[in-house]
Design goal:
binds 5'-deoxyadenosine, TIM Barrel, 14% strand
Length: 326
């Protein structure tokens, strides 16, 4: 069995591992570390995409402010609270509340929604609505938010700057460190297949997850969106993505690692081995159908199912893989 020293492995060693001809023993190691540290449970998280307005211009993302082809929506607080309650009744224990960077939801407005969902639905709340000041993050924590997701996207400062004309990797990492020091369970992650990315970049991404001390990390393939500047780029490799998830499991044995939705999009046929590379989380959209179609970060085919039926079906798929849905 291959051995990898998680505290001393170097960038070059990680890059060499990613480039290996045969990755099977690394997958086996990652799966064993997953079983020993987080067990056989697969956590199913509900994600509510409450607004597709965004003030940022990220060049890969369909929600970017310059995409005038996209009809925009905002969910009303009451609608969000009702959807959260329905998700709770269906068995969800965590609600991920995600949006573009939409200033309409002031710290006070979003804080009140968080308070009301905590009070009435008793779920763990993960916020994922972009870069805000330390004070705002602190306020939302007081309102009851438990976790926060904001991905590093890429650990290469030059690639980061070219994809995000309006921000920097430094600012992004500062947000992650603020969240961590405020006591949030903190989630980062990155994309596979960004223009200019090499195995060394991905190795740096993995080391940055460890440096931040991430509790969660979502690693997914880049998928080109036709209404963005990156429309003609090829999509990321799902094999490379699974390799990166496996190495993330080896570096962060206790982390929550989702099999990202984007991986599911590319992976139609081989969905079954998504959970064998170290992943232990999956997210399910509970966004009302009319809005769901407009939350188009990348193109994906969506079905129109109800929250309960959708969850039951996923639970069945997870049991079929000898894992325990929760
Ligand atoms: N392909 C794949 N993932 C994307 N994201 C945004 N745009 C794309 C895309 N075109 C991911 C980013 C972001 C998360 C919400 O969605 O990693 O953090």
């Amino acid at each position: 069995m291959i051995q990898i020293d998680r505290n001393h492995v170097t960038k070059n060693e990680l890059a060499d591992l990613l480039r290996r001809e045969d990755f099977r023993d690394v997958y086996e190691l990652a799966d064993r570390i997953r079983a020993e540290n987080v067990g056989d449970v697969v956590h199913i998280r509900a994600i509510l995409e409450f607004s597709n307005h965004c003030r940022r211009v990220c060049r890969y993302c369909g929600l970017n402010a310059r995409n005038s082809a996209l009809p925009r929506y905002r969910m009303k607080p009451e609608e969000m609270i009702e959807t959260a309650q329905e998700a709770a009744r269906a068995g969800y224990r965590t609600l991920v509340m995600q949006s573009g960077e939409d200033p309409w939801y002031t710290p006070e407005i979003l804080g009140e929604i968080v308070r009301e969902i905590k009070r009435s639905a008793k779920m763990a709340i993960t916020l994922s609505c972009g870069e805000r000041s330390r004070d705002v993050y602190a306020y939302w924590k007081e309102c009851g938010a438990d976790r926060y997701l904001i991905k590093q996207e890429t650990a290469d400062p030059a690639i980061y700057a070219s994809l995000h004309p309006d921000s920097s990797l430094e600012e992004r990492v500062a947000c992650l460190k603020n969240l961590k020091s405020l006591g949030y369970e903190t989630g980062s992650g990155f994309m596979i297949g960004l223009p200019g990315q090499t195995a060394e970049t991905i190795a740096m991404d993995l080391l940055l997850l460890r440096e931040i001390g991430c509790d969660m990390a979502g690693i997914g393939p880049f998928i080109p969106h036709p209404d963005t500047p990156l429309r003609d780029q090829p999509p990321g490799s799902s094999e490379l993505c699974k390799r990166a998830v496996a190495l993330a499991r080896i570096l962060l044995p206790k982390a929550n690692l989702p099999a990202t939705t984007a991986l599911g999009v590319l992976n139609g046929k081989e969905k079954n081995d998504i959970f064998s590379c170290g992943a232990n989380v999956v997210m399910r959209k509970v966004t009302p159908t009319s809005y769901k179609r407009l939350y188009e970060i990348y193109p994906a085919s969506l079905t129109d199912t109800d929250i309960l039926a959708d969850r039951r079906q996923l639970e069945e798929q997870i049991r079929h893989l000898d894992r325990i849905p929760l």
